[in-house]
Amino acid sequence: MSGPLFDRGRLRFRPLAERRNKVSIEADSPDRPPGGLSAEARLRVAEAAGAVRAARAAGRAVILAFGAHAIKNGLAPVLIRLAEAGWLTHLATNGAGVIHDWEFAYQGASSEDVRENLARGQFGLWQETGLYLNLALAVGAHAGLGYGEAVGSLVQCGGLDIPSEEALAEEAAELAAGRPEQAAAAADLLAVLRRLDLSPGFLAVPHPWKRFGLQAAAFRLGLPFTAHPMFGHDIIYSHPASSGAAVGRTAERDFLAFVAGVAGLEGGVYLSVGSAVMSPMIFEKALSMARNAAHAEGRRLANFRIFVVDLAPPSWDWQRDGEPPPEHPAYYLRFMKTFSRAGAPVAYVQADNRAFLSGLAAGLRS
C-alpha cells in the first residue's frame, strides 16, 4: 500500500524577478574561444571540425548532445550560429538544459544560488519557470509536439493558445473510442487548465531575449531539438501545473525523434559534450533500436565518428587497451564505457565545453 503524497498546493512560489542569478546571457556569452586547450585538445577540435565538414558535405547527419552547462556557460549563441550555418542536424539535451535556455530567453539570466535557496526552502520554486514550461508541455502534448519543440514554440511564438475547457471536454469524449491517446492528451490538458483556472485564448508570454533562445532558433529553423528529462530531476516538477502525462508524452516523442536521428547517422558524426549520463544512456538504446531496424532491411549502421568532450582527465586508453576491468575506476566512467561499445571510432577530448564548442565553431568558419 502506498503512503501519502505530498500536496504541491502547500508550496509558495516567488516571482523570478526576486531571484538572484549567477549568469547573465549578454554578459557571459563567449565571443571567442577561451584559453586552456591543451595541444592534444586543439588537435581533437580540428579533427572534429574536419569530420563535421566532411559529413555535411556528403549530406550526412551531425548530432550534438550536450549537458545543461553548455547553456549555463552562455553558449547558446554559438550553437545558434552552428545551426543557422547548417552544420548541425539534431540537438539534444536534458531537462535542465531546457530550463536554462528558456530562462535566458525570458529574462536574460539564469542559474540561481542553490546552496542559499535550498537552505531556506526556496530552491527551484519560481512561479514563471514552473508555470510557463509546464503549461507549454501540456499544450504541446495536446498538439502532438515534442518536449523541446513545445518550449521552442512558446518562445518563438511569444505565448500559447489556450483552448476552452468545453472544447477539450468535448474532444476527450468524442475521441475516447477511436483515438484514445489524443483523447487522453485533451483530458490531461483540461485537468491542468482547471487547476490553474486559466481563461481560453492566446496567453502572451513575452521573451525579450528571444535571440538567445536555442530552442526557439531550432523551432524557427525546423531543426530537431529533443529533450530527455528524468522525472524529479528538474525544478519544474515542483509546480502544481506539472503534468506527468504531458512530460511523458512529449519526452517519449523526443526520444523516438532522437532514435530517428541516430538511424541516419551512417557517414555522420555524433558529438557528446559535457553529458556524463544523459547522452550515453539515450545513445546506446537509440543505436540498438536503429541497428535492429537496419539489419532487418539489409543495411549497416557502423560508419560514423564519435567525439566525447568532458573535463575529467583521461585515466585509460580506450582505443589502445579496450574496456578496462571492473576493478579499474575508469570502468565506471559511463560516457566512455558506453561509447566504446558502439562499434565506431571514439575520440575523447578533455576540454571545457566553452573551449571545445567555440573552437569547433571557429574551425568550421575557417
N-to-C CA distance:
63 Å
| Largest sheet, strands/sense/barrel | 6 strands, parallel
Q: Helix and strand string, N-terminal first?
A: EHHEHHEHEHHHEHHEHEHEHEHHEH
Strand order of the largest sheet: 7-3-2-8-9-10
Strand content: 5-15%
The helix content is 40-55%
Kindly report the average pLDDT value: 93
Radius of gyration based on Cα positions: 21 Å
* Poorly predicted parts: none
Based on secondary structure, the structural category is alpha/beta
Q: Count of DSSP E strands?
A: 10
Total helical elements: 16
What is the overall silhouette? globular
Task: Describe what you observe in this structure.
- Helix 7 runs antiparallel to helix 10 and helix 9 packs antiparallel against helix 10.
- This protein has helices at 25-28, 39-57, 68-72, 76-84, 95-107, 114-119, 127-143, 147-157, 165-175, 180-196, 214-221, 244-263, 278-296, 318-321, 334-340, 353-365; strands at 21-24, 62-66, 90-93, 109-112, 159-162, 201-204, 225-227, 269-273, 305-310, 346-350.
- The model has no long low-confidence stretch (mean pLDDT 93).
- Helices cover 50% and strands 12% of the residues.
- It has a six-stranded parallel β-sheet with strand order 7-3-2-8-9-10, with helices on both faces. Strands 1-4 form a two-stranded antiparallel sheet.
- Strand 8 (269-273), helix 13 and strand 9 form a beta-alpha-beta unit.
- The chain is of the alpha/beta class and 366 residues long.
- The longest helix has 20 residues, at 244-263.
- It starts with 20 loop residues before the first strand and ends with a helix.
